[in-house]
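Session log. Operator J.P. requested a structure for one protein chain; no other inputs attached. Running the standard single-chain path with C-alpha cell output.
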Amino acid sequence: MGIRILKISNLKNFDPNAAASKDSGIFGLPFTVEEATLVLIPVPWEVTTSYGGGTSKGPQAILQASKQVDLFDAELGGFFTAGIAMLEEPLQIRQWNDIARQYAQVIIEASSLMDDTSLETIIQEVNSYSRHLNQYVYQETKRFLVQDKWVGIVGGDHSVSLGAIQACLEKHPHMGILHFDAHADLRKAFEGFTYSHASIMYNVIASTSLSKLVQVGIRDLCQEEFELIQQNNNRISTFFDYSLSEQKLKGITWDTICDEIILQLPHEVYISFDIDGLDPRFCPHTGTPVPGGLEFNEALHLIKRVVCSGRQIIGFDLNEVSPGHSSSEWDANVGARLLYKLCGWMIKSMSS
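Structure written below.
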C-alpha cells in the first residue's frame, strides 16, 4: 500500500510550490482536521518547568515557522498529500497552564521548605490540573485513533505526552518507545509534582504495560534514575550520550550504532522527542539545555533506519521547543522541520 492521497476538492487548487497563505494550516497546508490522515494536537503546557521557560509557546511558534518549510522532500517526496492538519490550541488548556504554573512556582521557589505541610495543598492543586491535562490529551488522541487517523503531539513540556502514550498503548499494546532526550526523565514526582516534565518516563514505566523504552542521547540524570535503569534493564535500554560519542570517536559509524539501537525496538514504535536531545545549538532556548547531544541529521537518520527496518511509527510527540525572548525563529524553525520529518516518516511507515 502506498502513501494515502486525499481526494479533496480544494487540493486541486492548491499550489505546493507557492508561498504559504496567512490563513493556511500547519506547513501552509489546506487540509481540515476532518480531511487529514495525520492530526497534530498542540498542548501549550509548561506547569512544572523548573529552569528555562517558554515551551508553552512552542506549538504556536512551530505553527508560524512551519510555513517556511518547503513541502517537497527530496527523500520522502510529496507525503503531505496524505493530509496533515493541526488542531487549534484550546483556550482552556492555556488557562489551566497559567493557573497551575502560578501554584507550581510557589513550590519550586520554596524547594528548601518541602517539609512544610502547608505546601502540600498547593502540590495537590498542581497535580489535579496535570491530571485534567493528561485526560484531555488521552481523550483527544483516542478520538482520532478510533477514526483510524494518525496522531502527533506538539508540546509544551515533556509531561504532555503521557495521555497520548496511554491511548496509543490501548490500540498498540506491544509498542515500544524510542525516546530522544538529554535527560532520562525517570524521576519519581520531581519537586513533589507527580506529573513533572522530569517524571514522564517514570510514569510511563510505573503506570502502563509498556514493554520497551529505548532512550537515546541521555547525558543528564541522577543516581536514582541510573539505578532504575539498571533494575529494569529488561524494559529500559539507555544509549548514553558519552557512549555514543566514544563509539563515533573510535571510528564506529553512526549507521552501525543505529543498528544496535533499532534491535532493541519492537515492530510498532512510538517516538517521544524532546528537542534537547539534539546539540543545543539547534535549540538554544529550550528549557534545560545540556552540552553534547545528537546532530540534527543523526536523529533523522535513526528515524529513517527505524522505518527502513520495516518497523512502524504509530505515534509521536515533539516537546520542549521554546522560542525564547529573542526575535529569532531559530528554535521554532528547527522544531518545525523536525516535525515535518516526523510526519513524513510516520506516513511512510504506516502506508507501506
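Operator note: The chain has ten helices and eight strands.
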